[in-house]
Amino acid sequence: MKSAPREKNDMIYPESALILAPLSGYTDWAYRRAARRCGCLFAFTEMVDCSSLVYASLRGRSMLYRGDDETFLGVQLVGAIPEHFAVAAKKLNEYDFSLLDINLGCPVPKVYGKGAGAALGRNRELALRCFEALAENSRFPLTAKMRIVHPEDPGPTVELAKGLAERGARAVTIHGRTREGFYSGEVDFAVIRAVRESLPGIPVIANGGIVSVETARIMREKTGCSRLMLAQGAMGNPWLFSQIAAGAPDPSLEEWKEIVRDHVADMVALYGEETALRNARKIVHDYLKGRGFPAALRAEASKLTALADLDALLAHARPAVTRSPSVRGICAEPRETLR
């Protein structure tokens, strides 16, 4: 599974870059490949806990696998102990990645409760020490992903971002909500813009609530950030990359089926059929969500155990209701594929 070396590039993300966020339990090689088929050029592995590298408990080689066709792949580390970041960086030096990113924004309780993720983002001194540990031990360019620290005062968020840049961060991604906002609610465009204006020398990537071409347009307009990171909006909807970048239409039904089938087939190649289909149930649910498919079809997705089950599901998959403009669509007319 070892990949060939890549050429290094001083520009981490070009203007208007669209980046697939690291998503725990999702952004493995198969998931990233589905996104790449739909125009994604920049992606991350699943979020990696530093302690899993320190104590050699990382979930298999697949979590750090980089396909030979992946010209860009980042790894995001989460933790709260500088020494763990140092060890993790050294171990990752043995691999071939485009960059390492430090997570200062994950809001989930099991991460936050350990003082990591968004909790670390609220502890500026410790966050910068953890970043320094990475900088002193990694051979890769470093970036950071963080959340808004204070809902009313942009100062703490700006100061953390500036501290990271001063210590060598090549880019900073800002999720426009506080930890309490999790993944819903209003995005604070003003704070993201304040960070962008405070860091004229490095890319600032806007993240949060980007689920359509229109929300991407609004994010760029309100924040001044041309670079965007897509997360939940791309779950079951990899076409969002080509739609934002090039105005591509919704997929035809046959295109939709092809991407779903190819995605799950790649999971089988990575994990074996039994494990892959168990993991694929949530993936197929995401592809079905918001497209007008009947409840019976979604129930079938919860029982997948083999590729033959998926083929049967796709064979009679037809949207049952007319969608509203806000719901993910499938075009009635066939077209050339989005690949």
Write the CATH fold name of the largest domain. Answer: TIM Barrel
Our Rg estimate from Cα atoms comes to 20 Å
Summarize the helix and strand pattern as letters: EHEEHEHEHHHEHEHEHEHHHHH
SS summary, helix count? 14
Low-pLDDT residue spans: 1-9, 322-326, 332-339
Count of extended strands: 9
**Residues in β-strands, percent:** 5-15%
Total count of domains = 2
The residue-averaged pLDDT reads 91
Care to describe what's here?
- The protein contains 14 helices and 9 strands.
- By secondary structure, the protein is an alpha/beta fold.
- A 9-stranded parallel sheet has the order 2-1-9-8-7-6-5-4-3.
- Helix 1 runs antiparallel to helix 11.
- The protein is globular, with a radius of gyration of 20 Å.
- The relative contact order is 0.11.
